[in-house]
Amino acid sequence: MQALGRIARLDTPLTIYRQHEGGVSKRFAETMAASATRVLAEAHDTRLGDQAPAAAAALVAHNMAKAPVRDLATLKLIGSTLVELESAFLAQHRPDQFDRMLIAAETEKRWTAIRRTALRAGTLGLDAVTASSQPTLEASGTNSLLWSGLIGTARRAQRTLKGSRA
User: Fold this and answer.
1) Which residue in 47, 129, 141, 162 has the fewest CB atoms around it within 10 Å?
2) Number of neighbours of residue 95 by Cβ within 10 angstroms
3) Is residue 21 in a domain?
4) Residue 93 lies in a domain
5) Average pLDDT score over residue span 133-159
6) What is the domain count for the chain?
7) Closest CA to 119 of 68, 66, 48, 55
8) CA pair distance 67, 78, nearest whole angstrom
9) Percentages helix, strand, coil for the chain, rounded to the nearest 5?
């Protein structure tokens, strides 16, 4: 395909994916997550070493399944893993400058989304997100994280109030 030119990315959804309780993605979610974790760990074992199983599990849970990160250690693991895997990919495939820019933007978008999910859920505060900083991943998105931090703080306070009334 490369001989024919660049591949365009369509940002507009062209189909609607219907989800229902009886669907495979719902019935076998745990099996699919375990399989994805195993495949990722095996694929990146030489690059990530002993951290490969934990890093793969964290990526599946927090990048693919979009579960909020609940602790700083996991957030740091995800950040360092994204940096390492992006670096390895760039070294192996040597994309041109334009593609490097697209890859960096996509990685940054995923990193920001993972942190935003934790902030909005109130499982981590801005202090943890700041402490997990990965300079190579953070060109933008920081301002939107401030709003997510405020939302998460409100949700955490709400849970605390509900807990004290019980």
Assistant:
1) 162
2) 13
3) no
4) yes
5) 73
6) 1
7) 68
8) 13
9) 75, 0, 25
20 in a structural domain: no
Alpha-carbon distance of 51 to 58, in angstroms, equals 10
CA-to-CA distance for 23 and 28, rounded, in angstroms?
8
Q: Which two tokens stand for residue 85?
A: 């895997």
One-letter amino acid of 43: A
Structure-token match 């959804």, residue found: 13
Average pLDDT estimate for 70-81: 96
* 3-state class (DSSP) for residue 94: coil
Angle between helices 72-93 and 97-121 (to 10 degrees): 170
Residue 79's domain comprises 30-165
Is 152 domain-assigned?
yes
Predicted confidence band of residue 7 (pLDDT cuts 50, 70, 90): confident
